[in-house]
Amino acid sequence: MKRLFKKIISFLFKTSDKNKFKKFSYSQSGEDLIIKFIFDNLNIQNPSYLDIGAHHPYYLSNTALFYQNGSRGINIEPDPELFKNFITNRDEDLNLNVGVGDINGVLDFYIISSPTLNTFSKTEAEKYSKEGNYKIKEVKKIEVLTLSEILDIIKLDKFPEFLSVDAEGVDEIVIKQIDFEKNFPLVICLETISFSTTGNGVKNIELINYIVDKGYLLYADTNINTIFVKKEIWER
């Protein structure tokens, strides 16, 4: 009996030890764990966030881990059907059913048979259809606001500390609206590879260099996404 008891105790301690060091990620390639490491090193325990092209509250989400740990932020998802999930599952966040564009208005939004590819870009939508055999299921008219308009509406003077962008073809439009001199995120996670069904996507080096030139350190790259941190903040 004593031997059995010792084995049970030993097993419980080993299991407990293993669980203590276990890490869980919601992101596509562990981006949220990298970003958490950055904020932990900056002594920011609960960073605010702006998630543009949020898609789903948890699936492939770069912000779900932070929400789970007590952070709160803004999710922007233009697809009305996908947006419903945020109302139910991220009810302590501010959720907006709009798109982000370079002018305020209403644009065609292409609903693709694989919802992760939904886009405001007709060029991208047709590319998905030709190269990946994904169908354009529907085209909806969706309200689009500029980034500055969104920040004004929600009365946010300070840019959220973490910006996640997965806007399928209009990422550059989003990034180039940021005033990197006055109001900017500390950390950016951005999809920087073009769509490809063969794994031969092309990196958007021009956009990566643009962000680096605005004072960011290219901290990590998961091939799909690139993670940047404000250099002056990181090197303090």
From TrEMBL:
Keywords: Methyltransferase, Transferase. SUPFAM superfamilies: S-adenosyl-L-methionine-dependent methyltransferases (SSF53335). Gene3D superfamilies: Vaccinia Virus protein VP39. Residues 51-217 form the Methyltransferase FkbM domain. It comes from the Bacteria. GO terms for biological process: methylation. InterPro entries: FkbM_mtfrase (IPR006342), SAM-dependent_MTases_sf (IPR029063). The keyword Transferase applies. GO terms for molecular function: methyltransferase activity. Transmembrane segments: none annotated. The keyword Methyltransferase applies. NCBIfam families: fkbM_fam. This is FkbM family methyltransferase.
